Amino acid sequence: MAHGYVDDKQALLARLRRAEGQVRGIARMVDEDVYCIDILTQVSAATKALESVALTLLEDHLGHCVAQATAEGGPVAKEKLQEANSAIARLVRS
Fold first, then answer.
1. Which domains does the chain have, with CATH numbers?
2. Tens-of-pLDDT digits for all 94 residues of the chain?
């Protein structure tokens, strides 16, 4: 079974590589004793990059996995909806 994000896979990987580079840059900034506000600016950018990945994955999950389960109905649909609700709650809390 293909995951809902299959069409966005390359874009997601590119965003994750960018976030990975940003995090390495942040570590380097801390190591080099860069000014706190400059580091916080980069932390914010890395956080936004990861949030973008999360929102894309959530959108794909809802549009593919949840929609498919809902069309089938039954306990699987209820499980997928609860799973999506839990994921959304985790994203909102973070």
1. 4-93 (1.20.58.1000)
2. 678 888 889 999 999 999 999 999 999 999 999 999 999 999 999 999 999 999 999 999 999 999 999 999 999 999 999 999 999 999 999 7
Nearest-CA neighbor of 25 among 4, 6, 44, 3?
Answer: 44
What single string gives the DSSP state of each residue in 28-92?
HHHHTT--HHHHHHHHHHHHHHHHHHHHHHHHHHIIIIIHHHHHH-HHHHHHHHHHHHHHHHHHH
Angle at 47 between CA 44 and CA 34, to 5 degrees: 40
Residue 39's Cβ-side half-sphere holds a number of Cα atoms within 13 Å equal to 12
19: left (phi over 0), alpha (psi -120 to 50) or beta: alpha
Put simply, whether the predicted model's pTM sits higher than 0.85 gets the answer no
Cα gap 20→35, rounded to integer Å: 21
